[in-house]
């Protein structure tokens, strides 16, 4: 029923329909959905419409896509890009599917990254962003892996490499928040 409710007569859920539904939920204090989460969720969902599988704010999905997405959110084996997509959608404040320097800086500040680490992290992000100074999702994935993953030589014998330590901690905190988000989204969709 959820799908039919959202999809309407054309049997497709469009980004605008999801946006409208989430806006409605966000305006109800009991839903617990903060208004600032509406656009990140719409952007995030776009990643998981199989036909696009990339950041887009202009998507539509049919029933099979929807089922596939719900199953994926609820499976024990999350989609390999799920975490990155969630983070990307949250950081991309203007929802243009790219992240610029201002958005990246704001996100790091919100995550509580200490000032002395901002420089090195922004440098890594800048390297991945390339000449246009905007990070696409693929560029972001590379940067995210570089910042949160172990360094290339982090064997048992080598010391910590680069700024990966502190961000790892952040990442763990983030994924707790993220799981909560996805659960909330599923609950919302079900309750309709």
Please outline the helices and strands.
Blueprint: H1 2-7, E1 13-14, H2 15-27, H3 38-47, E2 60-61, H4 63-74, H5 82-91, H6 101-110, H7 115-129, H8 137-148, H9 164-191
Antiparallel strand pairs: 1-2
Helix pairs in contact: 2-3, 3-5, 6-7, 7-8
Characterize the structure shown.
The structure is a single chain. The protein is mainly α and 192 residues long. It is 60% helix and 2% strand. It is built from nine helices and two strands. Strands 1-2 form a two-stranded antiparallel ribbon. Helix 2 runs antiparallel to helix 3 and helix 7 crosses helix 8 (137-148).
Distinctive features:
2 strands, 2% strand, 192 residues, mainly alpha
Structure summary:
This protein has 192 residues and is mainly α.
Strand-pairing-aware structural class: mainly alpha
Helical amount among residues, as a percent range? 55-70%
> How many beta strands in the DSSP annotation?
2
Basic shape = globular
Task: Give the SSE string.
Answer: HEHHEHHHHHH
Which regions have little confidence, pLDDT < 50, spanning 5+ residues?
Answer: 153-166
Report mean pLDDT, rounded to a whole number: 82
| Content of β-strand | under 5%
